[in-house]
Structure formats: C-alpha cells, structure tokens
C-alpha cells in the first residue's frame, strides 16, 4: 500500500528505542507508519502490545495497533504494563515480536516505543531504527495477503509477579520497613501484587497512576527526584527506600539514613548474589562504575567485564567520556578502533548496510573525538590514534562501504591533525594489513601490489606496541601521518 512520502522527525529514532514529544514530534500517523514498517521489516505475525499510563497512551496505542493489523499481524493486547512485564509477556504469550507504547523516564509530554523481536530480543538486533525510519518515511508497504486481527486482551500481571518472585527466590520481605516511590508510574500497578504475595505493607509514595507525573519527574537517576523519598525514609525510620521510573525499568535505592545508594554499589551487591547461583560467571559493568564493582565481582569469584558504549550513539559516548574523566581525572589519549566488517557487492548492498558500516567507523570516530576533545586539549600533550585499514588505501572488492569509511578515517586524521596542532595534540592513523594469531595463521593471498616483509600476517603483538609508541612522548613530533604496521608491508 502506497501511503506517500512523509518527512518524519529523524530525531525520535534513538539508538535503542523511539520517542519524542507527542504529537509535535511523533503523532498518530507516524505511529501507524512505524508499526507497518515494523511488521514488514521483521516479518512478524503475532505481536504483543502494551502501554503505560500516559495520557496519550490510548490513542497512540490505537494508531499503532491499526498499523500492525493493516500490515497483516495479529495483535495480542496486554493493556497497562510496565516495560519489564511487557518483556515477560512477549515470551509468556508466544509472541514473535512486541511493541510497548512508552516514553520510559521522559516527561509527560513524550511518547514512543520499546520494540522487541522474538523472545523479547531488542528489535535493533533484527532491524535498525535507521531502517524503520526510512521505511516509515517512504510509506510504501506491500499489501499483505490478509489483514491481521486484534485478539482478546490478556492480563498477565499475576503470572508476571509470580515469575518475578520465583526467579528471585523470594517469598517474604520479613519485617523490613520499606518506603516505595512509584512517581505515579507503572510501579503503582505492578507492586501491589508483589507486596501482597510477600505479606509486606510498604509505605506508599505516589502510587496512583497519573501520566502527568504531578509530584516529580519519573526518573530516579536524577537525584533531585529522590528528595521526598529520602525525607520519608528518615521520618518513618524505615530500613530502605526504593524509587522507580515511569515504565518501571529503572530503580534507585536510599538507605536507612536517607542517603542515596550509588548505582555501582547496587551492581556489586547484585553481582554477589548472581555469582552464588552461577559461580565464575562474567558480569558486565560500565565505565561509570567505581573500582568497587570489578573488585567485588572478582572477590566473589566472577569475571568483571567492562561494557562498551555504542559509538553511534552520541549521548552514550558523551556519558562514557564523562565517566572516564570523573574516574581518572583526565583524558590524555584516544584510540578509535570501532569497526564492522561485511562483504557485499554494491549491487547487493542496501542503504541500511552502508549506513551501518560507515556509521560505526566514521560517525563513531566523530562522536568519540567530540566527546573527549576538550579533556585531551586540556592535557597539553594529548594524542589521538585512529585505526584505519589497508583496504582504505588499496581498495577491495565486495566491501565498498568498508573501503569508503576506512579511506575517510585517513582524511579525517589529516584534517584533524592540522586543526589540533596548535593545541599540541597529535593525530595519526595506524593501518594494519591482516591480523591473525600465532596459533591461527592467516594465509596471505598473492598480490601484485604488496607483500608482508615477515612472510606472515600481523599479530596483535605487532600492532599494540605501535599504538603505545604513538601515544608516548617519543612520538610528539609525528602527526597527520598514516603508518603501516603488522610486521611491515612493502608497497611497490
């Protein structure tokens, strides 16, 4: 069905979800188009749909459901739902996809989506939000063999809260005195069932559902939203205070003295408990965490793994840079090595393929430099190393997007080196040829232009010292250059 083109606001399509001001940035027609694009992109036939308590929820969900059905998918409505309960419902009801109408912790004027594929896997693992944007704007959707239908609404609240308590291994909170702030969000719908089943009567703060969030913003990561909870914990002589966001997937804690418990401490405590169930497991933490997190994980017998940011998400990169600056007090060096590999001819390549590859390599380098540049310049002797690729110099068949991005890195380096030279910041590109491991040799095909001087592919142990050299004081005189490493490569 041809709906005609429409210029939908590009900014509502975030790295992991879709959200914007309703209806200024995302309206019901946009919702209808995005829903149809979602069905086409995923090929889903059975979609679980829920919504939070926002004032725009009913009309926004109706437009979404109409789009899903018109594109041939059956819809299983679950009504009011927190985002975690919606994830549960996708599996519990055997959906092959899901759509939660919510703007999460954003203010009342917003709405949007958290979308999943089968087994509640984030939909971006199957189709990028960039692709959904392109399809929704184009408005050219194939006519399905038949329209879908809206099935009877299913209430999964009781099954969900049973599953939560069962998975947590909790049947009672004992005599704990608990104060809970739901911020007028979905926690006020979920928690009565939880507390009734464990026989605990908490002190309630703002449990009445109200999508206007009249008492405070529903975002517990903003410490100013916790003031009422802190005061109430002290007044009630409670043991603990708990605060949730609008759709119930963010939480913050306050101790018995009314002090906010840092999020990384919570990570460490949860990690301890998880490692009792899964000894030796790998636990992910992010750079914003203090040293206590990896120390506690390793002390409990786990493996602490530092999680990385999505370099195509400017805000995530900014947060990571800010966390590094807070943790270490300075940023002297930046190494840009984010990349994706894909072999496709230009004939087989989609624009989504092109944007995904060039986005990670070029947009990623841009975001990382932008986020770290102020701190690097302040160090008065900073260095940036961008990792290029031999294909960016020589070209390569079946990967024009990779070649273009890697060639762009070289140009980016040269221009940036000129710009930052007055600030005593060096910028260089390192170009590996082929990387392998000593125990996993890489067979180098004959090539008329280059040959490796050592007769083998490069090893990471060849490459790492080159990076260290360019970041060190001995390389202060080198900038704007492209250096070839990996045991040497001869051109001629």
Q: What this model shows, in words?
A:
- It is a single chain.
- The protein has helices spanning 28-42, 57-70, 83-92, 129-138, 157-168, 187-198, 227-236, 263-277, 292-299, 314-328, 351-378, 391-394, 400-420, 460-471, and strands spanning 18-21, 46-51, 74-80, 97-101, 110-116, 178-181, 203-205, 240-244, 251-254, 260-261, 282-285, 303-306, 333-336, 383-387, 426-431, 450-452, 482-484, 489-491.
- By secondary structure, it is of the alpha/beta class.
- The protein has four domains: 10-155, Alpha-D-Glucose-1,6-Bisphosphate, Chain A, domain 3 (3-Layer(aba) Sandwich), CATH 3.40.120.10; 158-261, 3-Layer(aba) Sandwich (Alpha-D-Glucose-1,6-Bisphosphate, Chain A, domain 3), CATH 3.40.120; 270-306, no CATH class; 314-491, NAD(P)-binding Rossmann-like Domain (Rossmann fold).
- The protein has a five-stranded mixed beta sheet with strand order 1-5-4-2-3, sandwiched between helices. A five-stranded mixed beta sheet has the order 7-6-8-9-10.
- The longest helix is centred in the C-terminal third of the chain and has 28 residues, at 351-378.
- It starts with 17 loop residues before the first strand and ends with a strand.
